[in-house]
Structures are given as C-alpha cells and as structure tokens.
Amino acid sequence: MSIDPINDKILRALSRDGRMSNLQLADHVGLSPSACLRRVQELERTGVIRGYRARLDPAQTGRAYVVYVAVGLSEHTKAAQTGFEQAMAGADEVAECHNVAGAFEYMLRVEVADLPAYKAFHTEILGTVPHVRSITSYMVMGTPKDVRG
Description:
The chain contains 5 helices and 4 strands, in the order H-H-H-E-H-E-E-H-E. By secondary structure, it is α+β, with helices and mostly antiparallel strands.
C-alpha cells in the first residue's frame, strides 16, 4: 500500500477525527466522495488503518493521573520478558507497555485516578512481578501535545 500525499492527508484527518463523515473527509482532502471512500476502504483492507477508537476524558473515567514508568529487569532472558509482559497485559492500569532499548527494558504508560492509586499499583502489582530490578516513575504534569487517536 502506497502512502502518497492524499493517503497521508486522509490518515492525518482520520487520526484527529475518526468519526468524520466521508463527505467531510473527501472535501478536506480534495477528492470526490466515491474516490475518498475507495481509498479509506483500501487503507482499512490492507491494515494501514487498524481500527477506530473513542477518545475518553481521563478525569471522567478515573484515569487522569498519568505516570510513565521505566522498568529494568534483573534477567535478560526470554522467560523473564514473557513473564513481565504477561503480567502487564493483565494490569488494567497499564495503558501501554513498550519493550525499549537503553538503560532499562520497558516503558509503561500507567493511568490511574490519583497518587494513592498509583502507589497501590506500584507496590501491589508492579512490585510483585518477578525479575523487576528497578522502577523509575515519571509523573505527567501536563500534556501540551497528544496526537494519539
């Protein structure tokens, strides 16, 4: 699938507003509605567009306290990584879990109601996972830009 300038405009527009009507999208990217719909369907069929999501208000859903957590493991084995990833997959507080290169193995995005809820996650969930060597927490103070859908 080729991401030409028109497909790029389509993807950027849908990333900002996945509920945009085909007529609005076609007007925005300068295509006829039928040509625009064909492109969107092809982007969906080929997996470039993997789905659509609702953007939730963190304050109203009890997930306004966001913490990025750098996690280091004591062992660098496949079993240790698999065990950690399975534990994080089962933790509702973890919105994202990334295996990264650098001084630690994982970067988590944790979303909870408040500091006591994060402390409970840190102590009762993350702190009980085997092979966790280090935990460094970065509390989000503000989010001046967020383009995630």
